Amino acid sequence: MIDLHPPASGLPLASVLLLCFAELSRVSPRIRDITRSLRPLAVVFCVVAVVTSFLTGYQASSRAINLTPAAEQAMAFHHSLGKALLVSALLLATFFFLGRVATYGKKMFVFLYYLFFILQVVGTIWVGTLGGELVFKHAVNVERLQ
Question: Is residue 109 a part of any domain in this protein?
């Protein structure tokens, strides 16, 4: 079976960068009107990207064989942070859309959205770094040439 995790693992970082661009574009009044519809699309793309990366990661880890104890521990940590990133992405989207429609407590939802936005950025970079460490340091799912 084809391993889809390597190309899918770049999607969360791309979605977070798109979301950062959408948030930063709100500063300039000239760009704000153009990118108004970009924010909801970027939030949805962020959730879809994290879910895709999460599911393909489990498919890729099922193929990993002959792992050292250090690699198994690193993979378990990568998986647990991937789960946390998935929950963070779902909460990010929830608070974003609640902040748009709420009449009461709108500021709290917007605050929680920005809190999970920061967690999403940091978490995406951290989980991606751990995944790269699995490949480059522990050679997980890397076929050896003879």
Answer: yes
In a domain, 128, yes or no: yes
**Residue 2 CB coordination number (10 Å):** 7
The domain total for the chain is 1
Q: Which residue has the tokens 């963070």?
A: 88
Q: Which residue segment(s) compose the domain that 100 sits in?
A: 5-136
Global pTM reads 0.88
For the segment 90-135, what is each residue's pLDDT rounded down to a tens digit? 999 999 999 999 999 999 999 999 999 999 999 999 999 998 888 8
Backbone angles phi, psi at 63, to 5 degrees: -85, -10
Gap between the Cα atoms of 26 and 6, Å rounded = 32
Distances (CA, A) of 141 to 6, 55, 117, 129, 132: 10, 16, 31, 16, 12
